[in-house]
Specification:
2 domains
């Protein structure tokens, strides 16, 4: 499957290709992040079903979710989301602790 997406931030258009292999789906993007093997928001948007940046497509975006379902890619994305939740909670906990430290520094405990 081939998709042309237009970046919301830069306005540039990028090509995202999605295909099945024996080991699961492969999703590539020719944006700078994708070309360097880094996190690419265009691929993740399509995986999540977001069609808002799609300019051209030779298949429905919904087909990507079917390809990803049950794959190692889906498992790693789930693990990433779980870890993001852990980090978000840790950041909130740290913010609360810093407020307590600031109060303690002023003798307000």
């Amino acid at each position: 499957m081939n998709f042309v997406v237009k970046s919301k931030s830069s306005g540039n258009e990028y090509n995202v290709q999605v295909y099945a292999t024996e080991d699961g789906p492969v999703i590539t993007c020719d944006c700078p992040a994708g070309e360097n093997g880094q996190y690419c928001k265009h691929r993740f948007a399509l995986i999540s079903g977001d069609e808002s940046e799609v300019v051209e497509a030779d298949a429905p975006v919904s087909e990507i979710a079917k390809l990803v379902a049950g794959s190692r890619l889906e498992a790693t994305i789930d693990a990433m989301h779980k870890q993001e939740a852990v980090v978000k909670k840790a950041q909130a906990d740290l913010k609360a602790i810093k407020k307590t430290v600031a109060s303690a520094m002023l003798g307000r405990l």
